[in-house]
UniProtKB/TrEMBL annotation:
Residues 7-98 form the NIPSNAP domain. This is NIPSNAP family containing protein. It holds the Pfam family NIPSNAP. It comes from Bradyrhizobium retamae. It comes from the Bacteria. InterPro entries: Dimeric_a/b-barrel (IPR011008), NIPSNAP (IPR012577). SUPFAM superfamilies: Dimeric alpha+beta barrel.
Amino acid sequence: MITCYLRYEVRPDKLADFEAYGAMWLDLMPRFGGIHHGYFLPSEGASDVALAMFSFPSLAAYEQYRKDAGADPDVQKAVAFAKETRCFIRYERSFFRPLLPKTA
């Protein structure tokens, strides 16, 4: 399993738009075989940082998602919404291999 961690620099005056953008991805990710672990919006502390995490069974599955998502009209709509609203300034993407409890 591979987990993608996203750290966004958001515009505090555009949080409602960013939340709408995130909601789009919560619906989109399972369509491509991913598991979305959610968006984490500013609450206390820094008001311009939001996080998101999602996982795929493998790096190959993630790469396939990237190929398939590029041609998806709903993904294009989400990307256009982010560009139009400018709800975040930038993002950083990192990948992790989770260590999870063993199941019986």
